[in-house]
Amino acid sequence: MNDKASQLVHEIGGLILESISEAADAWTLAVARFEFLDGATKENFAYLSESGEATFFRPSLDDEILDKVNSLREETRLNDERWIVCLVRISLSKQVKISFEYTDSDRWAPESFRHLDFS
After folding, report:
1. Integer Cα distance of 17 and 25 in angstroms
2. What CA–CA distance (Å, rounded) separates 25 from 7?
3. Which stretch of DSSP H or E encloses residue 68?
4. What is the mean pLDDT of residues 93-108?
5. Distance of alpha carbon 66 from alpha carbon 83, whole angstroms
6. Residues 89, 67 contacting (CB under 8 angstroms)
7. 54, 73, 81, 86: which is deepest, by most CB within 10 A?
8. Of the candidates 93, 30, 32, the residue with the CA atom closest to the CA atom of residue 64
């Protein structure tokens, strides 16, 4: 990942953390999934409690987050192909992990959020 993409990941993580601090008092993992398919964009944001229950929320900074994600999508092209799904995980210690999927639009479906961890 180049420096610009790394900076965008950092900024996306910060915006999600800011939004989750407004939405939840107690959480162990924040998850955001972005899907770009057939000209449409789907976004899902959730936080997991200690019991593993996923609570979905709408971030207050949604437009800013999506702008950064669109820029990241351009920066992380693979052989001129853009990813179609991006998963962002943020730990309680504010570590950010990001994963990309280029072919399987069902990868990391929101129904699976409760089974995710930071590994």
Report:
1. 12
2. 27
3. helix 62-75
4. 93
5. 15
6. no
7. 86
8. 32
Looking at residue 10, its amino acid is: H
Dig out the tokens for 34 from the structure.
Answer: 């972005």
- The pTM (predicted TM-score) of the whole model is 0.90
* DSSP letter assigned to residue 83: P
Contact 87, 72 (CB under 8 A): no
Contacts of 22 (CB under 8 A, 6+ apart): 60
- Predicted confidence (pLDDT) per residue in 37-86, tens digit: 888 999 999 999 888 888 999 988 889 999 999 999 999 998 889 999 99
Give Cα 37 to chain centroid, integer Å: 16
- Cα–Cα nearest to 76, from 116, 36, 38: 36
